[in-house]
Amino acid sequence: MRILHFQLNGDDAEVAAPDHWTLLEVVRYRAGLTGSKQGCDKGDCGACTVHVDGRSVLSCLTLAADIDGRQVTTIEGLSNVDGLDVVQDCFDGAGALQCGFCQPGMMMAARQLVTENPEATREEIKEALASNLCRCTGYTKIYQAVEEACRRQRQCTTERAGGAP
Ligand code: FES
Ligand code: FES
Fold first, then answer.
1. pTM of structure
2. Ligand 2 in contact with 100 (CB < 6 A)?
3. 131 C-alpha to ligand 1 centroid (Å)
4. Under 8 Å CB-to-CB from 153, ≥6 apart: which residues?
5. Is 18 in the pocket of ligand 1 (CB under 6 A)?
6. Minimum-distance ligand to the CA of 59?
7. Residuewise pLDDT in 10s, the chain (165 residues)
8. Which of 8, 79, 83, 109 is most exposed, with minimal Cβ within 10 Å?
9. Domain-by-domain residue ranges, the chain?
């Protein structure tokens, strides 16, 4: 057992967890944040995707001990005081979900892409989300949602820079 100190969705967290536990177990069974899904539990489905220091990781393959002192963001931390994150809003708008099981991980992976490459093409979006499996949607609406999120991210950047909306 060890005591972990890290930032969880912007707040200080102190959690006791067995040495062999994963980040996914800490998030779900210590912090009580069940948005990150325990799908395959072996790195195949992407349903457990969270951000560590702003980068997507598979939390089922991340040892909890490795997150000591780092910043963890789960789907519960993606929205902010202004409301839904643009990625969440675009998934909602596009109707890009059915059962919803894949969505938390899918949106966390999409958030990283939209942040890092808002010019992403459809092929780049497919590649970025290739590790996140969805058994329901057929992916088309997910890709459309991410394209719209990229478009809104570019618009936002242009407006902040004082250019034409
Ligand atoms: S639960 Fe982590 S990749 Fe499937
Ligand atoms: S909406 Fe059901 S797995 Fe993606």
1. 0.94
2. yes
3. 9
4. 86, 114, 115, 118
5. no
6. 1
7. 999 999 999 999 999 999 999 999 999 999 999 999 999 999 999 999 999 999 999 999 999 999 999 999 999 999 987 899 999 999 999 999 899 999 999 999 999 999 999 999 999 999 999 999 999 999 999 999 999 999 999 998 888 887 655
8. 83
9. 2-77, 86-160
